[in-house]
Every structure is written in structure tokens, then in C-alpha cells.
């Protein structure tokens, strides 16, 4: 496969002009731009990408949306080149952003435990996110997660599509609404799609379920146990759908 890599130039905002009516209007228009408009304006040069390794290296300097400006680094996916199953989350969290590795925080631990319990071979699993930069709002010394918007999801879909094209997984699991939106190209309701395999045009089977971080946010122990059991039940369906060697 050959992909054309958009290399975005830095997103330089204009300096504040003298306070004339025209200058004020121009500044307001610039501030009101969406992620889609910003991405379209920074038309990049094109470079060929012919392997997953090249895609990973190129993503390190991605400027396709403004999230790169405050994130520590790009967090690309990890796993074997011939992975049978690909799990797609929303975005890296605080720990992942600092370490540069996906699913190493509390949600990753929940996922690993469920994968092991349901008999999915973790050595044949590739994990990644729909958005490769951490989106957050600072609160003192903490960085609080913020959900990516539609423009940011679309901007990063370039990288996710490359991962899928090079790895060619048999099963793709969308963990949460952001991953499902990226993979399906539209906003969806997780509850309506859970447990129902979806055949993709590339031949892979897509499953949609909750993100494991959702389980961590449930305060009632009984509710948490019930939802965790359902999550594991859905991963068992994924295990059953994996083709035999």
C-alpha cells in the first residue's frame, strides 16, 4: 500500500492587529474557526508512506489538528504487524501521553484483564486510538481529559486507516463512542450496536462496546460488576469470531 502523507505546517495564529474595526473582525473570524477549517487551510506537501513503521515515524510530527500543540507526543498504536484483533480506543490519557504508549493506564489494565479472562491471545492484539494526541484541560497540576471533537476525529482518521490497511486485522473492536464514530463515519449510540457484529467493506468484522474507562467511572459496585460482566461477555463474542489458525 502507498499512502500520501499530509505534512501540515505549524498552525501559526496571526498577531493581534491594531484595534480597527476590520482588524477586530478578522481576529474574531480566526478565533471562531473549527478544527475542520484549520486543517483545510494548512494544506500540506505529500510524502509516500509504504509501511506501518513509516506511518508510525511520520505520525510523530503530525500537525493535522491543533491537539499536537499541547500534547507531549503522538501516541501511535502498538502490537504485532499481523495482529488478528485491533482494539481502537478514544485517545491517549495522561499516562499514555507521557510514556508514548497506548493503554498503559487504569483503563488499559481493565482491558488486559478482560482480554486474558475471555481467552483472547494478547500477543495477537494491536491496540490504538482514534485520536493520537491527548486532549485535556489543565486544572492546577492535573490534566483533565476532554473528548475530541468531530474535526479532531476526522483529522486523525488518516492514521487509523493506515494502521488498519497495513495490519489487516480480522476483527476490529471500537471501544467507546469516539472510536465508533471514527470507524463508522457517523455519530452512533453504543447501546444500539453492542453485541452486533458489523461487516466492513475491507472484510474485517467490527464490534462496538464501551470503553473500559467507563467501567472505572461507575461508582456503585453492583452496577460496575454487572457492566464489567457484560463487557467480558462481548469480548467473548470477539473471541468466538476470531478465525481458526
Automatic annotation (TrEMBL):
The lineage of its organism: Bacteria, Pseudomonadati, Pseudomonadota, Alphaproteobacteria, Hyphomicrobiales. The keyword Magnesium does not apply. NCBIfam families: UDG_fam4, UDG_fam_dom. Keywords: 4Fe-4S, DNA damage, DNA repair, Hydrolase, Iron, Iron-sulfur, Metal-binding. PANTHER family: TYPE-4 URACIL-DNA GLYCOSYLASE, TYPE-5 URACIL-DNA GLYCOSYLASE. CDD domains: UDG-F4_TTUDGA_SPO1dp_like. This is Type-4 uracil-DNA glycosylase. Pfam families: UDG. Belongs to the uracil-DNA glycosylase (UDG) superfamily. Type 4 (UDGa) family. InterPro entries: UDG_Type-4/5 (IPR051536), Ura-DNA_glyco_family4 (IPR005273), Uracil-DNA_glycosylase-like (IPR005122), Uracil-DNA_glycosylase-like_sf (IPR036895). The keyword DNA repair applies. Residues 76-235 form the Uracil-DNA glycosylase-like domain.
